């Protein structure tokens, strides 16, 4: 019986603290931030861990104080309540303490914010993302003589086979799209974000990049990132924008510079062909489940 209890606790611990929860897309039982794919996101993850060194002690202190007050100063033990109205030491402690805590949180917070808002000079790629209900339109600003622009819709389940995206571990339901935004690794990407003039406010959010910026009709916002590893990353519109807000995903595929240039050249003439060629080059073959054979 005891062994079963230990086994159950171990299973629960594996679910809660499994390293698989850190990925480029949401995972079941995920309790932390997604794995970082940019320098800014690495800084955000560090700041999250840093703040816990203050949040946890403060929370425990408040809990202890509440327990002490409930036990020591309950009505049955103190029928005549204290009428103390002032204590200089306590006043100093609960004024200076929070100020110091806020100071230790504010300094790295402002440093991180400054880094996010300091745009590198001469970005390698500039992309304009325009939001409408309920899709994204991407336009490559410096794509040469053949300008490239396309819409990105959420991939519908009946279209998976035709798109070659039947593997839901790579192309998850409600997050996969028909046309991903393709960009090169280790390059500075400037993203101009807006919404159609007659539309509503949206938000361009990519958790693995530490990126989130509003898409406002009639206004051009600007952000940037530099992905440090290849892969397929998923985000979503992060501003309530209507009945299909939950069905407005963002997918960014980060590839090598050579693959990006080849895709960009082909996509200018045939986007579907370019996407299929890129998928064939970067997608790994599905692993074969040989558990039954091993068992035999």
TrEMBL record:
Residues 25-120 form the Cytochrome oxidase subunit II transmembrane region profile domain. It is found in: Cell membrane; Membrane. Its main location: membrane. Keywords: Copper, Electron transport, Membrane, Metal-binding, Respiratory chain, Signal, Translocase, Transmembrane, Transmembrane helix, Transport. Residues 122-266 form the Cytochrome oxidase subunit II copper A binding domain. The keyword Nucleotidyltransferase does not apply. It holds the Pfam family COX2. This is Cytochrome c oxidase subunit 2. The lineage of its organism: Bacteria, Pseudomonadati, Pseudomonadota, Alphaproteobacteria, Hyphomicrobiales.
């Amino acid at each position: 019986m005891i062994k079963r209890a230990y086994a159950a606790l171990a299973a629960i611990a594996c679910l809660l603290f499994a390293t698989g929860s850190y990925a480029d897309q949401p995972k079941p039982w995920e309790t932390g931030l997604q794995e970082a794919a940019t320098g800014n996101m690495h800084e955000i993850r560090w700041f999250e861990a840093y703040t816990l060194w203050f949040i946890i002690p403060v929370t425990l202190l408040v809990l202890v104080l509440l327990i002490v007050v409930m036990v020591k100063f309950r009505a049955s033990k103190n029928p005549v309540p204290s009428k103390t109205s002032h204590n200089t030491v306590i006043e100093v402690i609960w004024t200076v303490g929070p100020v110091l805590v806020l100071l230790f949180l504010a300094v790295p917070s402002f440093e991180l914010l400054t880094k996010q808002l300091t745009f590198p000079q001469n970005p390698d790629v500039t992309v304009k993302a325009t939001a409408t209900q309920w899709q994204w339109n991407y336009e490559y600003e410096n794509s040469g003589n053949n300008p490239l622009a396309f819409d990105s819709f959420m991939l519908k389940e009946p279209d998976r086979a035709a798109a070659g995206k039947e593997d839901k571990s790579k192309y998850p339901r409600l997050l996969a799209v028909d046309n991903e935004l393709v960009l090169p690794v280790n390059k500075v990407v400037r993203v101009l974000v807006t919404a159609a003039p007659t539309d509503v406010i949206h938000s361009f959010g990519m958790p693995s990049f530490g990126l989130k910026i509003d898409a406002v009709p009639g206004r051009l916002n600007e952000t940037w990132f530099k992905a440090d590893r290849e892969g397929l990353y998923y985000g979503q519109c992060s501003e309530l924008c209507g009945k299909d807000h939950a069905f407005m995903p963002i997918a960014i595929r980060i590839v090598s510079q050579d693959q990006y240039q080849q895709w960009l050249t082909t996509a200018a003439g045939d986007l579907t062909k370019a996407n299929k060629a890129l998928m064939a080059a970067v997608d790994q073959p599905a692993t074969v489940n040989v558990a039954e054979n091993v068992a035999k």
